[in-house]
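in:
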């Protein structure tokens, strides 16, 4: 259901890469032209016997140094991939709770960027039978994520508390995750949101303020059920003290046929300072579990810090389309 937005994000990232590649090609072309001109100038003033040496030197040097430059900006690790895990929970439970809990009187959110490279891993649709594996991988790398939960798998509900206790943020996604029900009316939406809020409260002791709309705030599927509902809901949830997060990067795992290899490639094609990466924790998302270690390693190698969504995190909103 989130596929359309994901495809758009992927296309954007791929276009950006293409433009970057074109720029590198143009730069390389420029270097080659300059080198050829130099060769002609030098050739004109030198005896024939020295031609070979002159041709061999300038072109490879220039090309190598420009390639190295690109690599070094990408590969400089601010966090060692094998480095010590950062403490999962370094604040008291009360402090942490203040940053996540729904409080109608507290509408402090961060719409700015820190200028630092930060990635927020966000998993929609869980808990699922894969949640324990996801949590173990996160622990292994000493990073945390945000889980936007649903009530689709009652047999997995205990993983909600497990995820929270291990330093991850619990956000609200949807109780039923049935678009037809959730977007049938504003009332229906809030009934569903309150139901998933109660489930979270049962497991972690309070209702989180952090939410993600099914399909994201830009979804157009909701048009099928209620015209204009996203435009009405977005300000309303904020008035009630909730904050919704969309995403600005995807692995493409909303589609059923994406390979783990492609998920890694897709995820690592994003390189903006603040990354909110959409992932899925669902019954059919085994490839995401397979891809996760490489995704984490890739972003660590690029110097990103991993954080959870809370009142300090940069809010990312899509444009509303319905
Ligand atoms: Zn979802």
């Amino acid at each position: 259901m989130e596929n359309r937005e994901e495809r758009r994000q992927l296309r954007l990232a791929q276009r950006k890469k293409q433009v970057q590649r074109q720029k590198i090609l143009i730069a390389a072309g420029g270097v080659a032209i300059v080198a050829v001109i130099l060769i002609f100038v030098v050739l004109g003033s030198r005896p024939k016997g020295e031609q070979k040496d002159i041709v061999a030197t300038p072109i490879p040097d220039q090309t190598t140094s420009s390639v190295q430059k690109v690599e070094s900006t990408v590969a400089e690790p601010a966090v060692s991939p094998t480095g010590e895990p950062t403490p999962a929970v370094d604040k008291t439970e009360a402090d942490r709770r203040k940053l996540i809990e729904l409080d109608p009187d507290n509408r402090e959110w961060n719409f700015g960027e820190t200028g630092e490279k930060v990635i927020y891993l966000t998993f929609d649709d869980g808990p699922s039978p894969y949640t324990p594996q996801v949590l173990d991988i996160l622990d292994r790398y000493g990073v945390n994520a945000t889980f936007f939960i649903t009530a689709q798998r009652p047999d997995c509900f205990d993983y909600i508390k497990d995820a929270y206790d291990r330093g991850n943020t619990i956000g609200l996604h949807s109780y039923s995750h049935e678009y037809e029900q959730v977007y049938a009316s504003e009332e229906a939406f809030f009934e569903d949101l309150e139901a998933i809020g109660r489930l979270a409260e049962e497991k972690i002791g309070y209702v989180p303020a952090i939410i993600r709309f099914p399909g994201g705030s830009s979804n157009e599927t909701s048009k099928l059920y209620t015209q204009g509902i996203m435009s009405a809901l977005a300000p309303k949830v904020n008035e009630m003290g909730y904050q919704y997060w969309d995403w600005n990067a995807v692995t493409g795992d909303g589609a059923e046929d994406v390979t783990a290899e492609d998920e890694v490639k897709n995820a690592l094609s994003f390189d903006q300072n603040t990354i909110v990466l959409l992932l899925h924790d669902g019954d059919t998302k085994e490839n995401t579990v397979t891809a996760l270690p490489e995704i984490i390693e890739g972003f660590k190698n690029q110097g990103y810090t991993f954080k959870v969504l809370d009142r300090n995190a940069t809010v990312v909103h899509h444009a509303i389309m319905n």
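note: The chain has a mean pLDDT of 83.
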